[in-house]
User: What shape does this take?
Amino acid sequence: MKSLAMFGVAALVASSASAAFTGFSVDRAITAEGNTQYKIYANWNQSNAVMLNAFNFTQLSGALNARHQDAGEDPDGNPLASWSAGVNLLGTAARNNDSWVTVSGSGTSGGHDTALDPSFVYPPGSTDRSYIPHNAGWYEASPGTPNVVQAGGAQGGYRMMLLQIVRSGSGDDPIATFGFTVGWKVANTTTALFGGTGQVITIGVPAPGAIALLGLAGLAARRRRG
Assistant: This one.
């Protein structure tokens, strides 16, 4: 019986260390205010993954065209645009129509806070945080409270939202691609693990003309094979 019990403990330990990052996913929706909202998630195959940071953001093609709706104002009284979720204190509707980064899935300043890297300004040396510069990152500002991934998503498994991009209106929605690296760990361990490097995240919907051209290209290819 003792040996069986020890076997059970060993199996539990092996299971707890086997969580794996499985890639990114994107949810697209139109908000009640008529804007286009993208939520970008990192995904794992077990629930014991803890988010640490996201870094090495790289814009690959297109433009994010991100909409900001923050509580602050600049010296001229204009809305202050920032990717910091903590500055948006205007309530749920404002957060749903604002663009921000997170390592906890939260768009508020409460709970498990998210901080922006010092390099998260553009141009360098300024205080402008409305643009995500090359190699920028964001991280867990209160590591004493782990950001454990939660179940959810059509793909199954477990996930954490890391980025929300909102575009004004629901019409023009050009394609943009980007990527970044995720830093995480298994709960109750101290070893940092990494995923997502080299993976491409895509937002946007092809214009009708582009879809038609893709259809014609596919039809031509089928005819050639025939």
Observations:
- The chain has one domain: 16-220.
- The radius of gyration is 20 Å.
- The first strand starts at residue 21 and ends at 30.
- The longest helix spans residues 208-225.
